[in-house]
């Protein structure tokens, strides 16, 4: 097992470098950049993309070639443009910029945001509480509800309980998360009906004045609606996966043997079936958490006015804030690869009979 883990960790380096190469190469062909953003703001356009919606002549000059100027740079001193290129590091060829970036990342130096004048690590840490809140609580609630429900559906397979809960789960899965979030706002956050929950933020303005018990209550009061909106579609897959895993195990011979020995149904289910049936579900917890943590939170964060990693990534992409884009890509890519290894270790913890080295052989 140790050799397998070592090989997996060694594979992280080329995999991560490959991810960075692909994304760095793609960025070179995307119109617009931080220099265009600065020029657009100086010209009062507010956003470089407004320039691309203009005439064909402007659109054709989106990327400088030779002596061609950046969009909107006509009339600006060439020395100013050269200073901008030097400040952003575009006075060097792409290969040199990429190698410098990777070398800095290997030393955990992720640079500073072009437009916020704050380190990338500090920026990520600043936005982390929102994303951890949505990812952690959404995953825990999904597991604590879906696993018992899936077991119950497996035991009651084919009954009316199984039928109506399946219909309810399918309806919940079909509702887009952002639409459900808007519905919650309209109904429960003062949109048109009741003002029960707050509209924005993770805490109230008087957070520092609250007791520790009041702070806990205030925190859960604020996160209730965004967490519910983030969790609603996660129930279906996890519940049905749990049900199908239990049904597969219940039909096996060792279960019939345990029942023939006179063991109670609960002893059979939770003493014998549970470990084997929950192998895929429990071992996949790290990957599920990371998926909820990194994915799909932009709309939820926007609707509930939460400033998390979803909005950070979107704003960095729009502003062409390359240090934030590539820094977060490197960090999250590394975390994702490590979590993949942790998922394999979880399989071994849940079922020690699994041997990845023997499987490879």
Automatic annotation (TrEMBL):
Classification via SUPFAM superfamilies: MetI-like
InterPro entries attached to this UniProt entry: MetI-like, MetI-like_sf
Transmembrane parts of this sequence: 9-30, 132-151, 163-189, 219-242, 277-304, 324-350
UniProt keywords, alphabetically: Cell inner membrane, Cell membrane, Membrane, Transmembrane, Transmembrane helix, Transport
Pfam families linked: BPD_transp_1
Keyword Ion transport: no
Topology relative to the membrane: Multi-pass membrane protein
Record keyword Cell cycle present: no
Residues of the ABC transmembrane type-1 domain: 128-347
GO cellular component, as recorded: plasma membrane
One GO term of the biological process aspect: transmembrane transport
Top-rank taxon, per record: Bacteria
Gene3D superfamilies noted in UniProt: MetI-like (1.10.3720.10)
Compartments where found: Cell inner membrane; Cell membrane
Family, per entry: Belongs to the binding-protein-dependent transport system permease family.
Protein name (database record): Microcin C ABC transporter permease YejB
Source species: Thalassobius vesicularis
